[in-house]
Amino acid sequence: MIRKRISIVGAAAAAGMFFCAEIQGEEPSACAQCKGLDSFVVPAEIDDDIRKMVGKYRGGGGSKNVAIQKGRGVIETGLYPEFINSADCPEIDSEKWAIDYSHKRKKKALHKGVDIPQPRGTPIRAIADGVVVGRFLNEGNKKGIEVMLRHMPEQTGLPFWTYSQYTHLREMSPLPIGTKVQVGDPIGNTSNTGKMGRRERRDALHFAILYSTYPEWSNDGVVVTPKDGYFMDPNAFYRLEAPYDSESLSSLGGEHKGVPVPYLQKDGTFEPPDTKRIWPYPCE
After folding, report:
1. Average pLDDT value for residue range 140-169
2. How far apart are CA 219 and CA 201, in angstroms?
């Protein structure tokens, strides 16, 4: 069965009192609720290029950000999921990893994750043990309501610190900053929140992975930034051996592009039973 669930922390969390916020016109300030968490540092200790990589930066944007993002992993790899035992799992739609979004934006832009459609309200699962390090309403932003988790190497079996990002949530997750989660725990519900143009976004999870060989990270109220961080193709997160960087992955032969992906089953068991990493939705 699924491991014991975490408890929801009070009406204050549900009311959004644990958000970190940035005041417009002022320099980014450290997330007060993040202080004291493992390896948290003040925003000034993170290079500005990392904020440009994530895509939120005053005075940055467009071609400058895209160049940094490409240099930090946002390039196509050709990887695709192959769910273990041919399971029926929610799949990535046409909004795949690292596709060029310039035709959808007023500035040059890349898709720094993958989109997985599911019906509105479908619970999203923590892909590994970790801790909540980011909660953002992203008002006026295309990402919509967002939650981010931080995973230590021993929690994933990977040789670095990873950060999983979940956006377009229906409402803010009731889990406050600092909440420890276990693989398979529900962390939010699927929806289509976020600023849009003339068309309506379908209900889907935008799922992204960042990583770093350094444990330090920050949250300035706008974005979570790992020290010397990179983006990873979310499919690569499930590989059992190196490489994990996009440039090396893009050079692999076609026989290495399919990635066996573990998952939580609808009956609450894991496949394989000893996995530390799962797909963000259960499978059949």
Report:
1. 95
2. 28
What pTM was computed for the model?
0.89
CA atoms of 115 and 124, how far apart (whole Å) = 13
pLDDT of residue 104: 61
C-alpha 143/C-alpha 117 separation (Å) is: 15
What is residue 187's three-state secondary structure? Answer: strand
Assigned architecture for domain 28-271 = Distorted Sandwich (2.70)
**pLDDT one-digit tens code per residue, 87-126:** 999 999 988 888 887 666 567 778 899 999 999 999 999 9
Strand partners, 163: 150, 210
8 Å CB contact between 108 and 66: yes
Alpha-helix residue ranges (DSSP H) falling in 159-238: none
Burial class for 25, CB neighbours closer than 10 Å (0-12, 13-18, 19+): exposed
